[in-house]
Design goal:
- This protein has 398 residues and is of the alpha/beta class.
- It has two domains: 275 residues, 3-Layer(aba) Sandwich (Rossmann fold), CATH 3.40.50; 102 residues, Dihydrodipicolinate Reductase, domain 2 (2-Layer Sandwich), CATH 3.30.360.10.
- 43% of the residues lie in helices and 18% in strands.
- It contains 14 helices and eleven strands.
- The strands form two sheets. A seven-stranded parallel sheet has the order 3-2-1-4-5-6-11, with helices on both faces. A four-stranded mixed sheet has the order 8-7-9-10.
- The chain is globular and about 70 Å long.
């Protein structure tokens, strides 16, 4: 991986665009409404890692300078989506009315997303790229970060044309459509000189051909699959067992989800991507395979909320059998939204600093950290803190 490229200078208070793939979904709408609310002094920054001194030292773009747009396949307007989030208990009452003008302005920038189409992917990619370039030019932006918060896709088989950039370009030139939707968005973003955040477990920029493209065009990216709930707890608790030399015999996990995410994951093909990323951290941290089921079940009544129940069976001195149980109930969008805003600002800063390729230090935010095999949250935090300090020191030397 190329660590740095020639830095791209930006003025103080640079204007950064955040383009959400899935802008009218729960996470995208919550992030946009939340950012506008904080900017207007109607909400605080609770849940935003970027407000912590160890991260803020990196010199991130100001929240006030962010401009929003996006792609979505839904025709439900952003203001209506935020109103629905009020009914779901995610967004405070009164906020949609207070932000009506701003929400409508953002909604006007949301363009139709990728649907099942007979058009060749080369043509679709060109249209997506044109949307991103127009967003940058029309709003006078210094740089744009594309953040994928769309529905989870099934895993993809890496065919020969997805292994190299040349192979991918030849397939697209031949009128073929080899890319899953998430990777098509990532391809268009990179071609439009936009860095990428893959907040879902979908393939996105992680295909070898797209990772090569990011290196070729000199852009940073981060992913994959935001770590917001049960897996976050696992990456805190599992190191405790390892450091105390306690043998984890099994770790059983039951997840109940409502909302669009739960509906998507009710399809077993889509759920494979999520269960894979949720389970891989334990083995990496504990150093051995751990038995136990991991279930994700859709419960429409839960709406935007999720509940996880975990049962950990472990062995201590002289073979004494013990257990730990915990229950986590959280609002998926409220947990994820501040993180995607953090990531957009961190990746924009990486772009400004000339960083290229997967940003391993941003693995702190992900279940499946690109460019890193570290899963323990404390170690990931140290990597993030060090990364931010290095950016601050580099800026001081300029």
């Amino acid at each position: 991986m190329t660590e740095t490229n020639t830095p791209v200078p930006g003025p103080e208070g640079a204007r950064v665009g955040v383009w959400f793939v899935g802008a009218r979904g729960s996470v995208g709408a919550t992030a946009i409404a939340g950012a506008l609310a904080v900017r207007a002094g109607l909400a605080g920054e609770t849940g935003m890692v970027s407000r912590l001194p160890e991260v803020a030292v990196a010199g991130l773009p100001e929240l006030a300078g962010l401009q929003f747009g996006g792609h979505d396949v839904s025709d439900v307007s952003l203001p209506k989506r935020v109103e629905a989030l009020v009914d779901a208990g995610v967004v405070p009452h009164g906020l949609p009315a207070a932000l009506a003008t701003e929400l409508a302005r953002v909604d006007a920038r949301i363009r139709p997303g990728v649907t099942g189409s007979e058009r060749p992917q080369r043509e679709i990619a060109a249209a997506l790229t044109a949307d991103l370039r127009a967003f940058r030019e029309d709003n006078g932006l210094d740089r744009v970060v594309v953040v994928d918060v769309s529905s989870t896709e099934p895993p993809v088989r890496v065919t020969p044309e997805l292994l190299t950039l040349d192979g991918l370009e030849q397939a697209l030139d031949a009128g073929e459509s080899p890319l899953p939707a998430s990777s098509l968005y990532a391809y268009a973003a990179l071609r439009a000189d936009c860095s990428v955040v893959a907040f879902t477990p979908s393939p996105g920029p992680r295909l070898p051909a797209l990772a090569e493209l990011a290196e070729t065009v000199g852009l940073p990216w981060a992913g994959s699959d935001g770590k917001t709930g049960e897996t976050l707890l696992k990456t805190v608790l599992a190191p405790m067992f390892a450091m105390r030399a306690l043998k984890v015999r099994s770790w059983s996990s039951m997840n109940l989800l409502g909302g669009g995410d739960g509906r998507t994951l009710a399809d077993p093909a889509n759920a494979v991507s999520k269960t894979a990323t949720k389970g891989q951290g334990l083995e990496a941290i504990l150093g051995h395979r751990v038995d136990g089921p991991l279930h994700i079940d859709y419960v429409p009544d839960l709406g935007d909320w999720k509940t996880a129940w975990d049962m950990v069976s472990f062995e201590g001195f002289l073979g004494a059998r013990m257990s730990l149980q915990f229950t986590w109930t959280g609002c998926d969008s409220a947990l994820a939204a501040p993180l995607v805003l953090d990531l957009a600002r961190l990746v924009a800063r990486a772009h400004q600093a000339g960083r290229v390729g997967p940003q391993a230090a941003l693995g702190f935010f992900f279940k499946d950290p690109a460019g890193s095999d570290v899963h323990a949250l404390s170690e990931q935090w140290e990597a993030l803190r060090t990364w931010c300090a290095e950016l601050a020191e580099a800026e001081e030397r300029r």
